[in-house]
Amino acid sequence: QVQLVESGGGLVQPGGSLRLSCTASVSIFSVMGWYRQAPGKQRELVAIFTSGGPTNYADTVKGRFTISRDNAKNTMYLQMNNLKPEDTAVYYCHLRRDFLDYWGRGTQVTVSS
């Protein structure tokens, strides 16, 4: 069974940084990415490793967020710099494996002074 566990969320002031982690119970040689959902809004893509292709970022986070992964640790990261109040959301880890979608339970990121 595929399990994804996120960590690293918290409360940070505007302009601050956080690093999220997502550890999988399986190999992460797969389409894998980060999504977020703010209160009252739909879940949206933040950053993703595409299948055999480059990474993609939402326009709202380009230049501030960086997605990376350590295949040996089955762990994906999201480095978030220069955080803004509009980045406040629950951040979810996503993995697509064998044509199935798996999600973590999410980690809360709150950007507020």
Structure commentary:
The chain is mainly beta and 113 residues long. The protein has no helices and eleven strands. The protein has strands at 4-7, 10-12, 18-24, 31-37, 44-49, 55-57, 65-70, 75-80, 89-97, 100-103, 107-111. Strands 2, 4, 5, 6, 9, 10 and 11 form a seven-stranded mixed β-sheet that branches. The protein has a four-stranded antiparallel β-sheet with strand order 1-3-8-7, with no helix packed on it. A hairpin with a 5-residue loop joins β5 (44-49) and β6 (55-57). The protein is globular and about 40 Å long. The relative contact order is 0.33. The mean pLDDT is 94.
Summarize the entry for a quick read:
The protein is globular, with a radius of gyration of 13 Å.
Reported for the largest beta sheet, the result is: 7 strands, mixed
Enumerate how many helices there are, as a single number.
0
Low-confidence stretches: none
Structural class given helices, strands, pairing? mainly beta
Oligomeric state as shown: single chain
Overall geometry: globular
Question: Order of helices and strands, N to C?
Answer: EEEEEEEEEEE
Give the % helix: under 10%
Distance between the termini: 40 Å
Q: Give a count of the beta strands, DSSP E runs of length 2 or more.
A: 11
Strand content: over 45%
Evaluate the radius of gyration.
13 Å
Mean pLDDT over the residues: 94
